[in-house]
Amino acid sequence: MKDILEKIKNESIIEIDKVESIQQLEEIRVKYLGKKGQLTQLLRGMGQLTPEERPVVGQLANEVRDLITEKIEQTAYCLKRKDLEKRLRSEFIDVTMPGRKKKLGNRHPLTKVLNEIEDIFIGMGFSIVEGPEIEKTYYNFDALNHSKYHPARDMQDTFYITEDLLLRTQTSPNQVRTMERQKPPIRVIVPGKVYRSDEIDATHSPMFHQIEGLVVDKGITMANLKGTLDVFAKKLFGEQTRTKFRPHHFPFTEPSAEMDCTCSACGGEGCRICKNTGWIEILGAGMVHPNVLANCGIDPEEYSGFAFGMGLDRIALLKYDISDLRLMFENDKRFLEQF
Amino acid sequence: MLVPIKWLKDYVDLDIDIKDYVDGMTMSGTKVESVEEVGQNIDKVVVGKIIEITPHPNADSLLVTKVDVGGEILQIITGANNIKVNNYVPVALHGSTLPDGTKIKKGKLRGLESNGMLCSPEELGLNAESFPDGIYILDKEYPLGTDIKKVLGLDDKIVEFEITNNRPDCLSMLGIARETAATFGLKMNYPSIEVSGKDGDVSDYISVDVQATDLCPRFAVRVIKNVEVKSSPAWMQDRLLKAGVRPINNIVDITNYVMLETGQPMHAYDLNMLEGNKIVVRRAKDNEKIVTLDEIERILDNKTLVIADENKAIGIAGIMGGYNSEIKEDTKTIAFEAAIFDSVNVRLSSKKLGIRTEASSRFEKGLDAAMVQFAIDRACHLVEELGAGEVVGGMIDIYPTRKERRIMNLRTERVKWLLGVDIPVDKMKKILESLEFKVSGVGILEVSVPTFRDDVTIEADLIEEIARIYGYDNIPSKLMDTTFTQGGRNEKQRIREIVRDNMTAQGLFETCTYTFVSPSVFNQINCKAENPLRKAIKIINPLGEDQSIMRTTIIPNMLEVISRNYNRKITEGMFYELSKVYLAEELPLKDLAHERDTLIIGIYGDKDFFDLKGIIENLMDDLNITNYRVLPSNNESFHPGRTAELLINNKRIGYLGEIHPDVLDNYDIPTRVYIAELDFEEIVLQTNLNIKYKPLPKYPSIQRDIAVVVSEEITAGQIEEIIRNKGGKLVEEVNLFDIYRGSQIEEGYKSMAYSIIYRSEEKTLTEEDITKVHNKILNSLASQVGAILRS
């Protein structure tokens, strides 16, 4: 029997080595290890052996079975790897072919920039306030310390609905509306559409967008105005941006200023966009005029504040390097797709 | 305001690089718009003398000249005809450069050699109006060959300042000089107003009667006799031209020069043309006529202030003089007027008459009455300096209420309180004094405001003066360290951004359109006469009829956008806008309008109604709105068979559907368009941002498919409603997956195939459970809508 076992061992190993597929391997397994397999049959005949022979042959038979089993497992593993490798090789794709995309839409560029600006101010504790576009003359002018004869009131500059109602020329009336509604501390921005009687051209539009800002509290100074707007400019145009505050005049702030930023296109070197000055005018600002505070029932002896206003359209033109404002209102899909 | 730097140096000893000057002035509040370097490019242009002029043998319009340019005589051909022999003229030599960069070279003109060019003022970058005919004839004999830049003051720089409304005092050389002195710590020199003429008395020549005292706080007159009207000297013409004023004659030039210098407009009358030796300041009579200096007849009314003699108006006060009393070559005796007129009156009159002049724009902003005497004396001084006439002694000065300096208090601690920077009190004083304020006291400073500073009325104004000269740059930049405030978007603002995110994800592009539209849009979108959309708010002074009403619907805007895109060969598009419509309770509007945020969606190109509906369904899902329905509806702008309304909680939120072909025709769109217009304000109220988790199913679901044949008029909505009603909680999903018409189905009927997914939250459903409810559904479909189950 020993000889037969030895033969089974040798023959099976030779056969396994020749195997090329999992099926062949399975056939071999059945041939030797199956219920009717050679080794199984042999082991069934163990009863005929003497008690002395039985453990010796038993041990040898077990060794042969383990050997064949291990050999089959090893070979099976190798065959599976080979198959997998073959499959992977056959499944090559050209990854440079275009991806399958769901078509996305987009926010209007003005909304994109507005969202960005809103988020900057929200991060500094501002809330967003909205107000009417058809506004009372009182809020648009009188309450903002415009004299009865201020030229901005002219029919040439302002669209009127009635004598007392107009299309707001600025978002500033909401300074007053906010202060009437809310006591300090106040930190708000007011984005929205505004209207002026300008013919449409590359830089003018009768309807455009402003963002107003207002802060009122005890202890607010011009240093805070500078600090807040400087942070705003850096966040919007990049950390390298520098700001410059120039004296200016607005009826509803005192002192008043205009803020210039270093041109983000040339970094202040001077280029076409900044007309070689290195600076771009971004917004008007100032400390809230005591008359405006008083008009709203806030004691200007106790409270101070600052306000600012900027043209959203202009900032968007700058940010995206768009040279013609009219594109914003034409809504050509090929334009809108770019943002 | 144009400021020639050489002129400015009369008043301040300015020795600063132009770039530093411009920066300094801008940073102290007088913003520089531009700097023009006069004659920057001019090279090799010299003084020449014309010694011979002959006609060109080959061209009638050309002249051949011989010009002495100092040591050389050149033949130069010219087309100008204002030159005479012995004229001194600017000559551009061979190889020279003109201000616009043009290079002048030798050449032949119609066969004859030309060795350069005689220059016009324009060619030298000067205002051409004084020599409309051509070559600049120099006013006197300069050494031949001298660089023309020296002769014509072309080595000057002209700074253009932007003057804000509150600073009319800076619309003058003296005002700019004052700001310059304060900014750079320089001493200010006022020009001489000394007058030596004492002969006679002004009252021998004229009397003044100010009748409209309310509109004329001050009126001063001085008289000049033995006037010799001629050109003013080159230096004066040069300064006027650089400041943008056309030289006319010595008298008019003096009035303009003084206006530019002091900011006070002046006028000169030919005294001989005044009837009754009298000047009357009065309101015009209704329909009174006057021919103004520009030789246009104007018809006045009784709100306009005029200067008149005994019988007729001789000028519109503060706006423009009359043609009848204009200074002419033979004028011998003149009256100078320097006066203050009511700013509002000048503004209204100037607007009404449509005349805006240098003078009127100054009066409109409000002038300093105290400057009147200085200005009129300065004019007389210049008359003597120019030898233009003899100043008669005395001055008529009707000035009933003297303007005094305003006295104000400045609490020095408020400076830091407002600015956030410590400025020493001494520094504050010095700054204010440099601006001609007078300051006394400690702690609380008593400040006397100069009369030309009407804009300084409150303490904050004084603090601004200190701040701007101290330098905004020197104020630190500090974040707020006061009360903490809670920022952020409110619910409506958050929902707006959710809608935008949703639209973006669904492939729609946001548009931004004008909110004012043409009244014709209602016809264009088929609105009936009684349609409430027509109740639109009107702008009383629109840019044009096409932009004259505030929109009550965004459909016309969306159709315009689609039309524009389609006609630009863009074959498909999906757009939305979240913006306002403006509704009026009554017209004309009495109070604020109802401005309602509205969502408009418009799609075209290989799309149908269900693409549009799907977009809205996705949006409803995103906003967690479940109780909405889309039902058939009517709207005259839409296709009658393809119109629906969106209801949320049984309230109509808006319409959706295919646009009516007639409307598409009106917008020149030859393809189908689907639009939805929804009231965003209602959507906000119905939105539920409170999302609650629902446990994942524990038990398996079972799908049953059915196909039923129903009559055409039965809607999918009806069938789904029956399935859901009868199926109750066990029906998880109902999906319509096929509609079939054709063979095997009777005409007028359709077969609708649904898959129904059943699931219980409590147990695994048995075959029995499902069959029970499934049959209930089938029975109801049969009894309620006559559905026949297809086998």
SSE diagram, text form:
The complex is a heterodimer of chains A (339) and B (791).
Chain A: H1 2-18, H2 22-33, H3 38-44, H4 53-90, H5 109-122, E1 127-128, E2 134-136, H6 137-140, E3 165-167, H7 173-181, E4 186-195, E5 207-217, H8 222-237, E6 243-250, E7 253-262, E8 279-288, H9 290-295, E9 304-311, H10 312-320, H11 326-330, H12 333-336
Helix pairs in contact in A: 1-4, 2-4, 5-10
Chain B: E1 2-4, H1 5-8, H2 18-27, E2 31-37, E3 43-56, E4 59-68, E5 73-78, E6 88-97, E7 103-104, E8 107-109, E9 112-114, E10 116-118, H3 148-151, E11 157-162, H4 173-184, E12 207-210, E13 218-225, H5 234-242, H6 250-262, E14 266-270, E15 278-283, E16 289-291, E17 297-299, E18 305-308, E19 313-316, E20 320-321, E21 334-340, H7 343-353, H8 358-365, H9 371-386, E22 390-391, E23 396-398, E24 406-411, H10 412-419, H11 425-434, E25 438-440, E26 444-449, H12 459-470, H13 491-505, E27 509-510, E28 516-517, H14 521-524, E29 549-550, H15 555-567, E30 573-583, E31 594-604, H16 609-622, E32 628-632, E33 638-648, E34 651-659, H17 661-666, E35 673-679, H18 680-686, E36 702-711, H19 716-727, E37 731-740, E38 749-758, H20 767-785, E39 788-789
Parallel strand pairs in B: 12-15, 27-30
Antiparallel strand pairs in B: 1-11, 2-11, 3-4, 3-6, 4-5, 6-7, 6-10, 8-9, 13-21, 13-22, 13-23, 14-21, 15-18, 16-17, 18-19, 19-20, 24-26, 25-26, 28-29, 30-31, 31-35, 32-33, 33-34, 34-35, 36-38, 36-39, 37-38
Helix pairs in contact in B: 5-6, 6-9, 7-8, 10-12, 11-12, 13-16, 19-20
